[in-house]
Amino acid sequence: MSRSACLVWASKINGSALVTAGDLLFWGDMARRFHAFDADTGKVLWEVPLGGMIETSTISYAVNGKQYVAVMTGDGQSGSAGPLAMAKTVKTVRGQNAIYVFTLPAKR
Predict the structure, then answer these.
(1) By C-alpha distance, which of 36, 19, 22, 42 is closest to 106?
(2) Residue 89 half-sphere exposure, CB side, CA atoms within 13 Å?
(3) Which helix (H) or strand (E) holds 86?
(4) Banded model confidence at residue 21, pLDDT cuts 50, 70, 90
(5) Phi then psi for 82, rounded to 5 degrees?
(6) Distance of CA 75 to the CA centre of its chain
(7) Quick one: CA dihedral 81, 82, 84, 88, positive or negative?
(8) Could you tell me the pTM of the whole model?
(9) pLDDT digit string (tens) for 24-57?
(10) Where are the domains of the chain?
């Protein structure tokens, strides 16, 4: 059987993206927002402002059957100088290097 790909939804994003097996899409941006979307529809399920900009290092892992999503923030990342130089209108919080970890709810 032949399958073809088609665009379902799109969004302008920068930063790191991660899609889980449960069809959740996580990504963070330089405006310090960490977002969770339904990967199928693009509907925003959750978002939270963090202490610094988010560019890289979104990961998911499980411990004892509980799933977590972790993201690194701040301007101490090696890749942050280039985007900040190009995006002169972006005002970021400086010096907020941190790792945030969120737990995902259990499947129902």
Answers:
(1) 22
(2) 0
(3) helix 81-86
(4) confident
(5) -60, -55
(6) 16
(7) positive
(8) 0.71
(9) 999 888 788 899 999 888 899 999 998 888 877 7
(10) 17-103
Tokens of 55: 């560019």
| CA dihedral sign of residues 77, 52, 24, 14 | negative
Instruction: Compute φ and ψ for 102, nearest 5 degrees.
Output: -120, 145
Question: Which CATH fold would you assign to the domain 17-103?
Answer: Thrombin, subunit H (2.40.10)
Residue that is written with structure tokens 């927002």 in the block? 33
What is the DSSP-derived secondary structure letter of residue 82? H
DSSP the chain: --------------S-EEE-TTSEEEEE-TTSEEEEEETTT--EEEEEE-SS-B-S--EEEEETTEEEEEEEESS-STTSHHHHHH-TT----SS--EEEEEEPPPP-
The C-alpha angle 86, 90, 96, rounded to 5 degrees, equals: 105
